[in-house]
Amino acid sequence: MKSKCLLEKYREYLPLTNSTPIISIGEGDTPLVRSKFLEGQTGCGALYFKLEGCNPTGSFKDRGMVVAVAKATEERNRAIICASTGNTSASAAAYGAIFGLKVLVVVPRGNIALGKLAQAMIYGAEILAIDGNFDRALELVRAITDRHPIILVNSLNPHRIEGQKTAAFEIIDTLGDAPDCLFIPVGNAGNITAYWKGFLDYKRAGKAGKTPRMMGFEAEGSAAIVKGKPIPDPTTFASAIRIGNPASWQKAVAARDESGGIIDIVTDAEILEAYQLLGSREGIFGEPASAASVAGLIKMSKNGHDFSSKQIVCIVTGSGLKDPDTAIRNARQPFELPANLDALEKAIGGF
Ligand code: F0G
User: Fold this and answer.
1) Which of 188, 231, 279, 328 has the fewest CB atoms in 10 Å of its CB?
2) Helices (H), 111-267
3) What is the pLDDT of residues 94-123, one digit of tens each?
4) What b/e string do you get for 167-192 counting C-beta neighbours within 10 Å, with b at 16 or more?
5) Mutate to test the pocket of ligand 1, among 188, 215, 218, 321 (most ligand atoms within 8 A of CB)
6) What is the pLDDT of residues 214-265, one digit of tens each?
7) Do 320 and 238 touch, CB atoms closer than 8 A?
């Protein structure tokens, strides 16, 4: 049983007042599990995965959305809007539903994973599918919120960052201190910004003795920060991080530099390999974008980085169930056979 909800547990670190509604659908308190296979493969002293897919809508967005929606409601707003590659829209739709808010989600048409679309639909959001990519969607929702009394719940909303930083608190609460390195996928760059803030806040509060090196990874076809310029037509099969002009670009760079970390590229082939290994060797079904963190660790270890004395945490940002099409396209296909014992014995071979 979860004793306290996220808003209660970390209240003193969050921008809450006495009139902020305390809501929860079970966000936060996600597992930090020790690696069984990749720890040895990558030669880490200790390797953990933070399973953010265990949040109620299946991604880390719920941590930020619970704060953003509670604050929007406290301030008597009745409508929220976001641009999304899918997860933000699912989360906004769920938390908006708790208060009966009007939830407007602007997504790139045909380019979000099926499970995420299904979530936003069943939670009752207005889905506006544009002929454009995430970056265009974000430009449009920013313009709309300048003109109308609708609250923006992308990570440009500071309450989102405040909520998402609680994942860093949980890691420290579990390990007793910050890890040496934190590996994390980078898309719009809100999450790396949030973790860094969380690590700094906890260090300042005396809850941690150190801060980790922040190791962010962009997909090669969408690597604006690494390439130093916006990508007008970003590509990658990891649709959640198909973003060419990250909103929190400068904050991500600050997190990298202040922490002594890096932001680097992983190719789609590297992301795919990490996605498959997480599933087949660790029993962890993350979505493709989530595997970018693990792909980054594998890449660095192959390039000769020595992590043997290091405690490493990789963030698995979302559940693989959100994107069944990608899983089915990239795994061994089911064996079809008649419903009889002979055929089944033949199919399973000699045990
Ligand atoms: N992993 C997943 C599963 C995501 O959904 C996202 C972003 C990221 C990583 C990257 O995080 O943007 O904070 O750097 N998804 C957003 C969305 C953009 O609309 O759901 P970031």
Assistant:
1) 328
2) 114-122, 134-147, 158-164, 166-175, 190-204, 224-227, 249-259
3) 999 999 999 999 999 999 999 999 999 999
4) bbbbbbbeeebbbbbbbbbbbbbbbb
5) 188
6) 999 999 999 999 999 999 999 999 999 999 999 999 999 999 999 999 999 9
7) no
